[in-house]
Specification:
With 217 residues, the protein is α+β, with helices and mostly antiparallel strands. The chain contains six helices and nine strands. Bound molecules: flavin-adenine dinucleotide. Flavin-adenine dinucleotide binds next to strand 5, strand 6 and strand 8.
């Protein structure tokens, strides 16, 4: 059964609070649709925000430790992080410059990320990364060996303090601006996949898998 997140003073959306969403299913859907997250952390007072791959498994986000290798040094107890995922759904062209905006769905997750050490959990995280890149890929590609598994550092952030913010719908102009002779509207935005092409060193006799040939977003 999925429960909603309870907003606290750290996760309550302040500006345009009606756009704040704390429903777990909505949040999971955004996290599962996103391909890249930005991991924010602080080292010696300097904030870093690093883009990286991630995957959600149940109530946790896994991400590659290499993104945060700097922060990992000497931080076996865990590192406070802020992870964001952003999906842009449209450009909002208002009559006034002030009311231009974007339609979007975004998630902010706060908490302490811990390094994953158990080989079975590491394997589960790598499986989730690979299947997120393209469902069906894990079974076709060579599985990680012990050396590769050791060389990969993975972090887990439990999803406990989480918020989403969603802007959807039409242009919102000031009442007096609706009379202006200015075109207004939405330009929808979508991330789409192009046609796959074969690696130069891939034997031409190997057929392209269906999951790649038919991949759509
Ligand atoms: C593509 C895109 C474009 C945006 N453009 C603008 C812009 O031009 N101007 C602008 O003011 N805002 C913009 N925003 C919204 C922006 O992300 C913040 O929500 C806003 O600036 C600050 O909100 P706040 O004062 O409520 O949040 P803060 O007080 O900064 O944050 C409080 C808490 O609210 C939650 N929260 C805040 N923002 C988000 C979010 N986007 N998604 C999920 N949880 C959130 C977090 O848990 C955060 O800890 C944009 C968002 C996106 C995704």
């Amino acid at each position: 059964m999925s429960e909603n997140f309870t907003p606290n003073e750290r996760t309550r959306v302040v500006r345009e609070p009606h756009r704040g969403v704390y429903d777990r299913d909505t949040i999971n859907k955004i996290l599962d649709e996103g391909l890249v997250c930005h991991v924010g952390f602080s080292v010696d007072g300097q904030p870093y925000v690093i883009p990286t791959m991630y995957a959600r498994v149940g109530d946790a986000i896994y991400f590659h430790g290499s993104a945060a290798s700097r922060m990992l040094r000497g931080a076996s107890a865990g590192i406070p992080v802020c992870i964001t995922v952003t999906l842009v759904d449209g450009l909002v062209l208002a009559r006034s410059v002030f009311n231009h905006s974007m339609n979007y769905r975004s998630v902010v997750a706060l908490g302490t990320a811990v390094q994953v050490n158990a080989p079975a959990e590491k394997m589960e995280a790598l499986h989730a990364f690979t299947e997120k890149i393209l469902p069906g890929r894990w079974n076709d590609a060579r599985q990680p060996n012990e050396k590769e598994l050791k060389a990969t550092s993975i972090l887990r952030l439990p999803l406990t303090e989480v918020s989403a913010k969603i802007r959807s719908g039409p242009v919102e102009d000031d009442a007096e601006d609706y009379a202006l002779h200015v075109w207004a509207g939405i330009v929808p935005m979508q991330l789409t996949a192009g046609a796959p092409f074969r690696d130069e060193r891939c034997d031409a006799a190997i057929p392209m898998p269906q999951y790649a040939a038919e991949y759509r977003r």
